[in-house]
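User: Please predict the structure of the protein below. I'd like the answer in structure-token form so I can feed it into my own downstream comparison script.

Assistant: Understood. Taking the following sequence of 398 residues as input:
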Amino acid sequence: MKRVVIGLSGGVDSSVAAYLLKEQGYDVVGLFMKNWHDTTGLIVSECTADDDVVFAELVARKLNIPFHTVDLSKEYRKRVVDYMFSEYEKGRTPNPDVLCNREIKFDVFIDAAKELGAELVATGHYCRKDEITINGKTVYRLLAGSDDNKDQSYFLCQLSQKQLKMAMFPIGDIEKPKVRKIAEEIELATAKRKDSQGICFVGKVDLPVFLQQQLKAKEGDIIEIAKDAAFYNKRKDVLFDSNPSDEELKDIARPYYYFRGNGEVVGKHKGAHFYTIGQRKGLNVGGKKEPLFVISTDIENNIIYTGQGHDHPGLNRRALFINANEVHWIREDLRLNIGESRDLMLRIRYRQKLQLARLYNRNEGLYILFKEKQRGITSGQFAAFYLDDELIGSGVIS
């Protein structure tokens, strides 16, 4: 009987995953990780961390499985939160959940699970895993969850073959309503608990307040850029099937850069590093015909550039670039060679519908050209590459 250590979070998904594993005959052990103690910036009504461990233990008792806790807060601060601060300071917008999975749940947590005799480690993620054999070697595949509305494969886009080897996703082929129903039928304490929100293991936070632990507030200008600004027309729109040159790829993949003289001052902000591309809330600028969105941030000069409307050209781009050292392949056997190109499906944020794109691999990195323009391409976020329903790689958007 294989021993499986499951990360019991105090939510319904991991609870039902634990139940299914036990029903399948595994020797199941519940392990709760405490990764955060600081409450700075937390929205009190959303702070459930203290309750999580109670619910996790109630589930373990109901299922009659051993229950343990482990404190990984030191590693979490170093590997995830410090990274967050560093990225925001550079004007990039990181995804802490992706980092948490790569650095904590499928790394130091696995080490803790092994100390409890784990042969496999399970989580309540809505994704699937299978394995194939290539040239006599076992290759693990990360597949989208069967529930399109809850597929969480994107959050695991930085996992390695070594990490996938140890992983199990018991609810990946089940839809969320059925997971709830199972929990209610077996009377789990978590059956009607709300899903967690906010930053992984930190909770729902007032982000500027949270970031001010290390990043100082500093007043600066909000500048509006007109839709018909002349420089927008100077960039050639390279279409998907146009067979672009390398120079055309480099040009279209560059973010737009703005200068104070390009627009007019329409308001004040409290720190450019607190804002991200596509953001609408928190600008506090009224009297505009259309909603105002952030289209760029200049951290060095502490300026936020904005534009009116969802169709603003500064908000919608055809291409992006990923530096070579920030490209990650889950399937190394499907890696693009230098000079090659390939059509794949991509998403640049969680819950986004998959988008058709062509990847061009060059010495300096990956150029990604989309068939349709993408709204709010954001530096620091992850672009995930799919072949059918398999997530084969990802990279950090430059």
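That's the full token string. Helices lie at 12-23, 49-63, 73-89, 96-115, 161-166, 176-185, 207-211, 246-253.
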